[in-house]
Structure formats: C-alpha cells, structure tokens
Specification:
InterPro entries: Glyco_trans_2-like, Nucleotide-diphossugar_trans. The chain contains nine helices and seven strands, in the order αββαβαβββααβαααα. It starts with a helix and ends in a 7-residue tail after the last helix. It is an alpha/beta fold. Strands 4-7-5 form a three-stranded mixed β-sheet. It has a two-stranded parallel sheet with strand order 1-2. A two-stranded antiparallel ribbon has the order 3-6.
Length: 281
C-alpha cells in the first residue's frame, strides 16, 4: 500500500540479491501505484497497480500471472530475507521432496525480540528450528511450486485479511501435497501486534467460519466452528469488547457469502489426521 517505503526497498533488495536462482519480481500495489514509489523501485522490478485495495490474498493472486518460473515466492513488504541463499535452499528442498507443495520458513525479529508463538504454525510449538508438517502458514514469506499453487486454487480472494494461510495449506494438502514448516530457512519480520488493525477481531471470526464453509465436508463444519468458538471465548473471556467484535464477525461469517465452496476429500481429512491435525480444531 506504499506506506513502508524503506521496508519495501529492503525486502525487494533481499530478493534481488538471492544467489543461485533466477528471480522475476513484481511489486503489487494494493490501492497504490508502485511506479510512483519514493525511493523508486529497481528497474528490474515490474509493478502492478490495483486502483482499489482488494485485500492481501487477492493482491497476491493478482501478482502471480505477472511473473514466470516454476516456483512462486510471496513476501510481505515489511519482511525480508537475511540470507542470499534462502531461495536456492528453498528450491533445493522442493526439488528433493516433490511431495511438498508449500514451505514456510522460521520467522525471526531482526532486532532480537522473541518471536510470537503464532509464527510457528502447529499446536505443539516446540523448538522453532524444528521442521514439520503443518496445516496453516504464516503468510508473510511463503514458497510454493507453481503447480501446487495452481492446483490449490491460490489464496482466498474474499478473505481480505486473516486465515488465508490456513485455507491455502488445507488446499495444498487436498491437492495431494504436504505443507511444510522449514526451521532451517529464515525470514525476518518485526514483531507487530495483529490486533492493531481495527478489523482484526471481526475478520478473524468471519474468516474462521468462511474457512469451514468453503473447505470442509458439511458434517465437519459445525465441529470446526464450534471448537474455535469455545477456544476464543476462553481466550478472551476477560476482554468483552474483543469478544463482541469477534461475535460480530462470527455472525457475518454465517450471513455473508464466502465465495465458491470446494470441500476437501475425506481422503485428505484422513491424511491430515494421520499427520497430526484433523481439520476440526
């Protein structure tokens, strides 16, 4: 959105400086024209101007047809890659394990602040350097084979913000791949409270309901929504204002159109359960 020119320049430079890979970079401006960036973007970076802010997942989707290559990498404008070997190492991981359809790196704060537990997308967080199968992802730095991205249907356009990383991971699993947390790969991102957005609680709840309605077999929809409703009530029992906003989004999740429904196959439910995370929580 053009609000972080210094961070944007740093992130783009970290991609252009990658070694051992050819990069094709597009900067998508959500309601902003990156061609007007100050300082200007490097000449090898193409720009895509979206006159309206379509939201984070839709913006990512619009950038995909603008680039070539068999592997896609999405990087938020406030993140960057500390190592010039990140993409080569990530592509080597995908080539060595062709069943991987999504890779999320370990995320660290560049100033040394402790990383939030939410950046490790598994129930048992454990050692942040430990790699494992996952069933969601932190969306700020994500690597995917283009074939897996196409098979998954891409990011959830209607979500605007929040939980699009869960849907993408679920759909990657449903396409026959695995989503992977790579503890040996590292991306940098400052620790920021996501609740700084006024719409955080509402979209968090609405998209949780939409996630179930769009992706789960009908019998599992109330199980998933019910379990997360209980979790949020327990989590925010002492924050009535947060709960009111959350339940406003919860109601919107049932009343509003979530977009096309694409329920995962029962085979995928079984694969996810065997791997440690059945899609009911």
């Amino acid at each position: 959105m053009g609000r972080r020119p210094v961070e944007l320049a740093r992130g783009i430079r970290s991609v252009l400086d990658q070694q051992g890979v050819d990069v094709d970079v597009v900067c998508v401006g959500n309601g902003w024209d990156p061609a007007t960036a100050d300082p200007p973007l490097p000449p090898e970076v193409r720009t895509l101007h979206l006159p309206e802010n379509l939201g984070i997942p839709a913006g990512r989707n619009r950038g995909v047809p603008e680039v070539s290559g068999d592997v896609l990498f999405f990087l938020d404008d406030d993140a960057y890659l500390p190592s010039p070997d990140f993409l080569a190492d990530g592509c080597r991981l995908l080539a060595t394990h062709p069943d991987l359809g999504l890779v999320q790196p370990r995320v660290v704060d560049p100033t040394g602040l402790a990383s939030p537990r939410r950046w490790i997308p598994r129930i048992r967080k454990g050692d942040p350097a430990h790699s494992s199968d996952v069933f969601s992802c932190w969306e700020g730095a994500v690597l995917l084979p283009r074939a897996a991205f196409d098979a998954s249907g891409g990011w959830a356009d209607p979500f605007f913000y929040a939980h699009e990383g869960i849907e993408l991971a679920w759909r990657v699993w449903d396409a026959g791949y695995r989503a992977w947390y790579a503890g040996e790969l590292e991306a940098a991102h400052p620790v920021i409270d996501p609740a700084r957005h006024e719409y955080y609680f509402r979209l968090n709840a609405r998209n949780r309901v939409w996630l179930a309605r769009r992706n789960l077999p009908a019998i599992l929809v109330p199980c998933y929504v019910g379990s997360w409703t209980a979790i949020q009530v327990l989590r925010w029992a002492r924050q009535p204002a947060a709960l009111r906003a959350w339940f406003g989004g919860w109601r919107a999740g049932w009343r509003e159109d979530p977009g096309p429904r694409r329920p995962m196959r029962w085979r995928t439910v079984v694969r996810m359960a065997v791997a440690g995370r059945p899609p009911v929580v």
